[in-house]
């Protein structure tokens, strides 16, 4: 493969550690697209003949359809996708194939291929997140008034609506999409033509190949072009944050479906059983979304560690950039799709939610707010008075609204019957009308605005 300089074959172990075709074969479409752009540019610049370029282009098209149809034999001895394609091209068109590698190196080739690949991942992820948002918004509109307990410290805090809770994830997904879109902007420059590391003596047109491949411009520095993988790191960082969002949601589903909690149900479609315990209904999909997050973060960590000690320019270590990243991207894609499926599937247990929303004196803040509003009490005093009342109710083993008014008045004589009206969970959520608050009319307005936004995309 290396021509004149070598007289012996590589050791079997050398070949085994060096080979990357099992992973980089997934870059075949990008590799061929980049080669076609390169060959056309070489001809346009008078570096190879138009006839050679035509044959190279045709040969590459044949290879593309061979691989697409599963009729291509990948050879491990040829190391990677670049050598496999070039060697097959020589079989197909003869010596002209050898002109394709003029003014380029596998270093700029692989950097170009992987940028194109990650760009596709970014676009697919954005579309998948948009579907996830659509599912959330649909369900939020359906449940804008469904009261559920809101938690802090996993203790019942204040009533919220199920729709409001779902809309929180719409916002998170929007920021995730923004991060992926930002990464795409920085990624979208072409390394092609940087050659091995120093550029080339041939009069190539990097602007032309960049344009042909949908890049905004060529990368400005040849050393940087072949040796950075920050576009993968940035995408994996955004993917990790996104996966953490999904994982938190998945954890909530695991908690909510526990018989101890029972706030939601998943249908048989998103539930598994046990091989020994006939009664079991396990939220495996949610658990696996939680676990896939480990793979995504693992991929990010793995590549950060690969890159951290590498001097410029290309080092073979960088061949290890693809496997973990591809696995991480696949894990995220599956996690997004599984969460979208669960969002569409989930059924809130509305009676249980409503009852749980009122447990644990969840409307105590509403009573304190009433004291502030009606009796003009400073909030700190109202908090103290309400705390005493909650204490009495807890001692009597009753809910706040079940405590006789007389007992409340023993703590604060000015409390009137009106105060009892604010103690229901419905009136509590209805009162939270501040911007971004959980009031059903807010939730409905937010969901409708998002629906419009998503339809316009
Ligand atoms: N298979 C290699 C990779 O993925 C391609 C670049 C090889 N370049 C080299 N100088 N050995 O990184």
Automatic annotation (TrEMBL):
Major localisation: cytoplasm
Catalytic activity from the UniProt record: 2-(N(omega)-L-arginino)succinate = fumarate + L-arginine
Any one GO molecular function term: argininosuccinate lyase activity
Annotated Argininosuccinate lyase C-terminal domain residues: 361-430
Pathway membership: Amino-acid biosynthesis; L-arginine biosynthesis; L-arginine from L-ornithine and carbamoyl phosphate: step 3/3
SUPFAM superfamilies per record: L-aspartase-like (SSF48557)
Protein's GO biological process: L-arginine biosynthetic process via ornithine
Location(s), subcellular: Cytoplasm
InterPro entries in alphabetical order: Arg_succ_lyase_C (IPR029419), Argininosuccinate_lyase (IPR009049), Fumarase/histidase_N (IPR024083), Fumarate_lyase_CS (IPR020557), Fumarate_lyase_fam (IPR000362), Fumarate_lyase_N (IPR022761), L-Aspartase-like (IPR008948)
EC number(s) stated in the UniProt entry for this protein: 4.3.2.1
Domain Fumarate lyase N-terminal residues, every copy: 4-298
One cellular-component annotation, GO: cytosol
Keyword line: Amino-acid biosynthesis, Arginine biosynthesis, Cytoplasm, Lyase
Protein name, entry field: Argininosuccinate lyase
């Amino acid at each position: 493969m290396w021509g004149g300089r070598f007289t012996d074959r590589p050791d079997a172990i050398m070949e085994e550690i060096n080979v990357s075709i099992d992973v980089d074969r997934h870059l075949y479409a990008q590799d061929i697209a980049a080669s076609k752009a390169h060959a056309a540019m070489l001809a346009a610049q008078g570096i190879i003949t138009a006839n050679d370029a035509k044959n190279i282009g045709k040969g590459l098209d044949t290879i593309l359809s061979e691989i697409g149809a599963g009729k291509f034999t990948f050879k491990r001895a040829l190391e990677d996708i670049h050598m496999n394609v070039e060697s097959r091209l020589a079989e197909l068109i003869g010596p002209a194939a050898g002109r394709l590698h003029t003014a380029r190196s596998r270093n700029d080739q692989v950097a170009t291929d992987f940028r194109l690949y990650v760009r596709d991942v970014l676009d697919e992820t954005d579309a998948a997140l948009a579907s996830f948002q659509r599912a959330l918004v649909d369900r939020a509109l359906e449940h804008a008034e469904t009261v559920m307990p809101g938690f802090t410290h996993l203790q019942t805090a204040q009533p919220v609506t199920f729709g409001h809770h779902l809309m929180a994830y719409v916002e998170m997904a929007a920021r995730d999409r923004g991060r992926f879109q930002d990464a795409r902007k920085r990624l979208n420059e072409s390394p092609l033509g940087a050659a091995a590391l120093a550029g080339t003596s041939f009069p190539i047109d990097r602007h032309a190949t960049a344009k042909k491949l949908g890049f905004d411009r060529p990368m400005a520095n040849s050393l940087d072009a072949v040796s950075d993988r920050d576009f993968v790191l940035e995408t994996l960082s955004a993917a990790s944050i996104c996966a953490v969002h999904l994982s938190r949601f998945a954890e909530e589903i695991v908690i909510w479906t526990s018989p101890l909690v029972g706030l939601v149900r998943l249908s048989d479609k998103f539930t598994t059983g046990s091989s020994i315990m006939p009664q079991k209904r396990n939220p495996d999909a949610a658990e696996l979304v939680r676990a896939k997050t480990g793979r995504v973060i693992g991929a990010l960590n793995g590549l950060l560690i690969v890159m951290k000690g590498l001097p410029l320019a290309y080092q073979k270590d960088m061949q290890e950039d693809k496997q973990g990243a591809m696995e991480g991207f696949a894990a995220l894609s599956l996690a997004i799709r599984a969460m979208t499926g669960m969002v569409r599937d989930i059924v809130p247990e509305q009676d249980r939610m409503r009852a749980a929303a009122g447990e644990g004196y969840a409307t105590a803040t509403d009573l304190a707010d009433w004291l502030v509003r009606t009796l003009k009490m400073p909030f700190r005093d109202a908090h103290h008075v309400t705390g005493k009342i909650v204490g009495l109710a807890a001692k009597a083993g009753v809910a706040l609204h079940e405590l006789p008014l007389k007992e409340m008045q023993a703590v604060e004589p000015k409390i009137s019957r009106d105060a009892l009206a604010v103690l229901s969970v419905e009136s509590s959520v209805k009162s939270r009308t501040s911007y971004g608050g959980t009031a059903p009319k807010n939730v409905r307005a937010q969901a409708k605005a998002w629906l419009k936004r998503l339809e316009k995309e």
